[in-house]
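Two quick folds needed for the group meeting slides. Do the first one here.
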Amino acid sequence: MHIITKITLLLSVLAFSACSTPDESVSEKGAPGEAAESHGEEEGHREEGTVRMSPQQMKAIGLQLGTLQNRNLAGIIKVTGELEVPPQSEASVSATVGGNVQEIKVIEGDKVRKGQTLALLTHPELVQLQVDLQEAASRLQYLEQEYQRQQRLYEQKVGSGRDLQEATSNYNTKKAQVEGVKSRLRILGLNPGSILSGKIYQSVPVVSPISGYVQKVNINTGQYVSPQQQMFTVVDQSQLHADLMVFEKDITKVKVGQKVSFNVANAAGKEYMATVYNMSPAFEEDTRAVHLHADIEGSLDNLIPGMYIEGRIATDTTTALALPETAVVQEGDQSFIFVKTGEAATENAHLAAGASKDSAQTVGKDWVFKQIPVVTGASDHGWVEVKLLQPLPNDAQVAYKGAYNLISEMKKGETEHAD
């Protein structure tokens, strides 16, 4: 009986050991599912403000790296405005007398000289005005002779002083009338001397007061135009200049003699140069800006008054650390660059074994980039001054091209991680 009890106890211990061994193993090593999850979290961990790019991604966005460089940068002020001519270089040609348009001698775009006839007007009153001059001149001749006769009689004490006064008054009145008609005809562009010789003009010329180009023709043949009605616009483009607006914060940086480069819409690929020659002393409250005038250098081809322009004024030159403008990401009031901080085995390494020869160049290590805040300064011809808020190695590799893709990918990763 004692032997049977011992055997029963031994069997119980063995049975307990067999049942408890698997549970102890799980307790010490952890469940397989829990181990895999922990490993995944460690593998997927990303430092805040970093982004990891695979070779395929870098090739797709055309990623290019470079270093911070010391460059001579001319400070640039961006301005807008339009092309203009001074008031004395633009003429609104109007009729000095009412009449019907008999003939139009120019079209828009024609080059004209000062005094050239642009159109002819005709009206019955024009003929009557010339007839009035001839009649008044004839009457004046008679009154002049009467005046001279009365003067001789008075000197000989034969005529009365009253008769001389009347003859003098009549003569002076008619003389003033004749001179007035002559002046009106000269304003109309007619020659009073020819009219007094017997010539009668059937039409009146409308002439250009300046040399330049016909910008607008506002009349048609046969149309009646009233006095002072605008018929043509003539512009002398030789005095064309850039009228720019400089905002309050940049006024102290601009001075006469500085160079301005600008572009116009109809020649977007061409850059024009100008030199500042005048700054308006008047400050405009509405726009918080002043007008700036600049002489255009070289050819004025394709430039027309009224065209909208975008310009850049070069200020003082400085030497500073700089990067291409494409390397700097602007988000609100903050600027960032992306610096390569390391490399890691690609998360898609399992694809390497099955990659074809055509895709072999995309297989390699992932690159890790960190977002670095900076302050930007002067910009010049595609480069911008960069002021570091934290030190970087001299050979730090900065994303020259593809920076906006990096920040987009970084935000995408942060969103997925949050989910």
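Then this one, please, same format:
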Amino acid sequence: MFLLRHRPVVFILVGSAAALVHLLTVILLVETMHLVPLVANVGGWLCAFGVSYGGHQLLTFADHGAPVLRSANRFFLLSAAGFAINESAYAVLLHTSQVPYQLLLAIILVCVAAATYLLSRRWAFAGIRP
């Protein structure tokens, strides 16, 4: 019951875990495999997607009642759209800013999270509530 009453907090916790996976994956790929940050960002998003969907499916929106396949497809589309915004903003900022790539990515991940929450709740995980 705690999870359902505190849905925004749970969303932030799950999102923070996914963002941390995303950020650490990017840093790992840049520092060890010498990928450019924009390419590494794709790998970071793919790794973080599983953490994000699983956490939101099992915790944040556990009571949603939507079919799993439908919510997975919708969340993937939502996540991919968020990633497109993320990657576009990241590309612009990497080329126009002197801020370290790690900090830029962290800022972008936080900015995209608010829109993701609203769209997840209203569309991706919308279903029959008990």
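Slide caption for protein two: Residues 21 and 48 are 6 Å apart (CA to CA).
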